[in-house]
Design a protein that fits this description.
Strand order of the largest sheet: 3-10-9-8-7-4-5-6
Number of strands: 14
Structural class: alpha/beta
Helix content: 40-55%
Bound molecules: pyridoxal-5'-phosphate
Strand content: 5-15%
Shape: globular
Largest sheet: 8 strands, mixed
Distance between the termini: 48 Å
Length: 489
């Protein structure tokens, strides 16, 4: 077995000189219990007797006696010239004890939504690059190379400003670049003082849920909608009111009828998740008017708006807002890659202080090193060219996927090519169950997401959500052959 690093050197051994037990026995017992509890795992290197004696201020002979007993009883073994290590096959009775300890006496009750969340995480399995996984991105060789260079350059200037606590609102250089981008590309009205750098969309949803005042935190969500928004709100104790989505986007009149006093509404206006519908101008104005009159907040999740392939782009809802009711959210986890965990919110000025404080209390600030790399990437123009290149790539992937689906499965599916984003919806025909295909597809090593699962109260539409941004072009044809098998073809 490979030896493990010397965590034992950090273990908080203690010696009580006033105790009746001799010092060597106290040390022996502490080591033994650390081994049995798993705090020191098999193959962990133990400190030398000399180090242990110095650390505890005891005699070397007491440390040697403690080790000898551990060795004699089989809790540790010595390797010539290398030191003493925790044994991997522990003495019988104690191994059994450890097994018992691992099983908790009572299992904590899961939150109501944990099953749904489990399904979502399991189905999308966002960490692997199986076609047609959702939410993944591609990074080409040029961006990969630049990323390495900018990281190396940032590390070369590694110094005081990276080592201490930073601004909880985010680095000013990055906030400036985000503003430049949003003003130009999304007609967002913003100043760097309004921008909060976050870990991504998920963190902003959590902050909004935490800062909403009052016992009855009623909020509107889209139905069907993004499950992680709804689940995060439920987990934060909000009362979620599903509002149906039609071909013009969220039905504002229906929302007002169902919950006129809601505190907030969470929407994806530029590319509704999952349907891809664009919120019409009439509905945008209706939503803004309701928010202005009722004092509600509109949380605009503008995810994946960087990747627009055609059609008439509508600028952000925030850009139309005269009454400062819109909290605009964007994510760099889609524009670049999900492992980055960086995003931003543009806040109405009266909310900035509260949001920055809430973020500070959650996790203080974003990582200084990551922010510096992304700020340089944006400032030096690489972000704009990365987006342009990826837009072309994703457009090609979308077109190839649409063509392959129509060719192989046109009689089972109606494909709706989206003008934006990183996934498409293929509606099933002739009563074919999307959930059944989702299950069968998994057996063929591909991931499709059943859209019907994302409905709350609205009548379920059966469709498959297929990502086209997270795997190479050459995977499309063989993956469509496997999908056809999932349909029994
Ligand atoms: C609707 C929607 N918003 C936002 C995100 C991005 O979330 P995050 O920035 O937390 O990675 C996703 C990712 O799948 C999404 O589908």
């Amino acid at each position: 077995m490979k030896s493990r690093p010397g965590w034992a050197a950090l273990y908080a051994f203690e010696v009580d000189r006033a105790a009746d037990a001799p010092v060597f026995r106290q040390v022996y017992l502490q080591l033994r219990s650390a081994i049995l509890s798993g705090a020191l795992r098999p193959a962990t290197k133990l400190p030398s007797t000399r180090e242990l004696a110095t650390q505890l201020g005891i005699s070397r002979s007491a440390a040697v006696a403690a080790f000898e007993q551990l060795l004699a009883e089989g809790y540790a073994f010595g390797k010539k010239g290398a030191g003493t290590f925790v044994a991997s096959d522990l003495p019988e009775p104690f191994d059994a004890m450890r097994g018992r300890k691992k099983r908790p006496a009572s299992v904590p009750k899961p939150i109501a939504s944990s099953r749904e969340l489990g399904d979502f995480v399991d189905v999308t399995a966002q960490s692997d690059e199986r076609p047609f996984n959702l939410g993944r991105t591609l990074i080409d060789a040029r961006t990969a190379e630049l990323w390495r260079k900018l990281n190396a350059r940032t590390l070369r200037s590694f110094g005081g400003h990276h080592l201490g606590y930073g601004d909880p609102q985010g680095m000013i250089e990055l906030r400036r670049s985000v503003c430049d981008y949003l003003r130009a590309a999304r007609a967002v009205r913003c100043e760097p003082e309004q921008v909060l750098i976050t870990a991504g969309t998920q963190q902003v949803i959590d902050i909004v849920a935490r800062v909403m005042q009052g016992p009855d935190k009623e909020v509107w969500v889209e139905d069907p909608g993004y499950p992680l928004t709804r689940l995060a709100l439920v987990a934060a104790g909000a009362t979620v009111c599903p509002v149906p989505v039609d071909r013009h986007g969220i039905n504002v009149t229906e929302g007002i009828r169902r919950a006129p006093k809601a505190r907030a509404v969470f929407v994806t206006p530029s590319h509704q998740f999952p349907t891809g519908v664009v919120l019409s101008m009439a509905r945008r104005l209706e939503l803004l008017a309701w928010a202005r009159e009722s004092g509600a907040w509109i949380v605009e999740d503008d995810y994946a708006s960087e990747f627009r392939y055609g059609g008439r782009p509508l600028a952000s809802l925030q850009g139309l807002d005269e009454a400062e009711r819109v909290i605009y959210i964007g994510t760099l986890n889609k524009a670049l890659f999900p492992g980055l965990r960086l995003g931003y919110a543009v806040l109405p000025p009266p909310l900035v202080r509260t949001f920055v404080t809430a973020r500070y209390l959650m996790d203080r600030q974003p990582s200084t090193l990551c922010q510096a790399v992304v700020a340089a990437f944006m400032e030096e123009g690489h972000f704009a060219s990365h987006i342009r290149r990826m837009r072309d790539k994703y457009r090609n992937q979308r077109d190839a996927l649409v063509a392959a689906l129509r060719r192989r499965l046109g009689d089972h599916l109606t494909v709706d090519p989206p003008d934006q984003g990183m996934h498409l919806v293929a509606y099933t025909r002739r009563g074919i169950s999307d959930v059944g295909i989702e299950r069968a597809a998994r057996e063929h090593e591909i991931v499709v997401r059943a859209m019907s699962r994302l409905h709350i109260e609205a009548p379920r539409q059966s469709g498959l959500m297929l990502g086209f941004s997270g795997y190479p072009h050459q995977s499309i044809a063989p993956a469509i052959t496997r999908l056809a098998r999932a349909f029994g073809r």
